[in-house]
Amino acid sequence: MEHAAPPLIQNRTFDEIQVGDFAQLVRTLRPEDIHLFAAMSGDVNPTHVDLEYARSGQFREVVGHSMWGSTLISTILGTEFPGPGTVYVSQGLHFWRPITIGDTLTITVTCREKFEHDHHIRFDCLALNQDGLKVIDGVAEVLAPTEKVSRPRVVLPEVTISDRELRYRHLLSISSGLTPIPIAVAHPCDRESLLGPVQAARAGLVEPILVGPEARIRGVAEEHGIDLAGLRIVDTEHSHASAEAAVALCRDGGAEALMKGSLHTDEMMSEVIRHLRTGRRISHVFLADVPSYPHPLMITDAAIIIEPTLMDKVDIIQNAIDLAHVLGLPDPKVAILSAVETVTPKIRSTIDAAALCKMADRGQIRGGLLDGPLAFDNAVSLVAAKTKGIRSAVAGQADILVVPDLESGNMVAKQLEYLANALMAGVVLGARVPIVLTSRADTAETRTASCAVVQLMAHKKREALKA
I need a labelling partner for 445 at 20 to 30 A (CA). Which of 66, 120, 439, 462 fits? Predict the structure, then answer.
């Protein structure tokens, strides 16, 4: 099998370039160009990276770094005209107008003067925008190469900009405009479990009731500089008492949501099962914002039911579908995962998947579009699904991933978080109140994001009760 020769990068020597010769480059400024340039240079001037500030400034919108345009001049000089072997000597520039997102610059570099004694060349440099208006001009001087160079063009790695802060703010915005809800926080006795609800309170999501040993909570706050002003504390002796008191607040109407602090999950959930159960099986959902996936992804159940039965999975799926409806997704696509995409009696999860899809056809699961069994790649990649000949409205574009058991689900969720830089929120469904349930290793950011989800759920519950 023949392989195409790699593209070459070639120069033009001093002798080959004549006065009046020119080269051009056309480039459009994208938002990711601004973010990448800011990350590379450390220039986080709010004119470039803060939309709210930029709207109140001189230009009324975010503008690109002026030096981003000047790097395009360097690109021509270093890669094409003259190209490899060129040494920058000097550069003088004038910046005439801002570069805004979507502007297309045409960079022209024209040979102005040649100096035989030292092989220097001066170039006129000009950047015009898509309206033909001058953005940058100036003069560059270089030491031009005297020997011909032809090299394979180096293929650079793909760079992905993951604006985690922007994704975090977007997740918090799902409950924008809603009033804070009272939430009982069980045993917030380490930095992350205390900072999470405090940050959520400052963001207007919740009104935390901190349930735990007061002296210990205040000690953590003092150690880490966390301001507890205005927050209610319910003093308890130990973690089990914290779980009892926090659940009691939810049971008796003193709180509309529950949040796990630094105690073990079993310790809190045993109280939940005893006092906050409904007719539906309690299950857990991770809501993941994955940079490489086009929309939020829900993984269930990765924290509560260890080895779910077929009927457990019915409730797991229905809980997740109901949450999707709360989040504004009217007909979520539900992928029931297994190791393979064909039904085989040797793998129980494939049998369950087939049965669950038929149950959905018969109305035993409502409000979503189910398909399975699907392997993970088929569930999230259209390319993988097409390669394997899978025709499905769910494959490659799943909103909800239903895992075979807790072990596989926990691994999927943690891999997305730690290897794919996913932003996670974790909630428990099927109880009388929504519950924020995160790992003890999770950050305050994760806990705060989860509070936005339960705030929205609590308000939807209020609306349903009024109706």
Answer: 462
Cα–Cα distances in Å, from 451 out to 175, 220, 229, 234, 456?
9, 21, 19, 20, 9
Q: Please give the C-alpha separations between residue 458 and each of 103, 319, 332, 429, 433, in angstroms, as whole numbers.
A: 44, 15, 21, 12, 7
pLDDT, residue 183, reads 96
The closest of 11, 15, 13, 20 to 111, measured between CA atoms, is 20
Q: Which helix (H) or strand (E) is 452 found in, with range?
A: helix 444-466
Nearest in space to 90 (alpha carbons), one of 125, 136, 122, 126: 122
* Residue partners of 346: CB distance under 8 A and separation at least 6: none
Based on its alpha-carbon atoms, the radius of gyration of the chain, rounded to whole angstroms, reads 29
Edge-to-edge strand order for the sheet containing 22-28?
22-28, 104-115, 120-128, 134-143, 87-95
Over range 219-225, report the average pLDDT: 94
Amino acid in position 135: V
Q: Using CA atoms, how far apart are residues 241 and 160, in angstroms rounded to an integer?
A: 47
Question: What is the arithmetic mean of pLDDT over 191-212?
Answer: 92
Residue whose C-alpha is closest to residue 201's, from 222, 225, 228, 176: 228
For the segment 357-388, what is each residue's pLDDT rounded down to a tens digit? 999 999 999 999 999 899 999 999 888 888 88
Chain center to CA of 440: 21
Instruction: Name the residue type at position 102.
Output: G
- DSSP-H helix ranges across 212-347: 214-224, 239-251, 265-275, 310-326
Residue owning tokens 């919108």: 61
User: Which pLDDT score, from 0 to 100, does residue 296 have?
Assistant: 87
CA atoms within 13 A on the CB side of 212: 27
Position 155 scores a pLDDT of: 84
Cα–Cα distance between 81 and 140 in angstroms, integer?
12
What CA–CA distance (Å, rounded) separates 143 from 258?
A: 69
* pLDDT surpasses 90 at 108: yes
Do residues 142 and 42 make contact, with C-beta atoms less than 8 angstroms apart?
no
Instruction: Tell me how far apart the alpha carbons of residues 66 and 46 are, in angstroms, rounded to a whole number.
Output: 14
The encoded tokens of residue 355 equal 């049965």
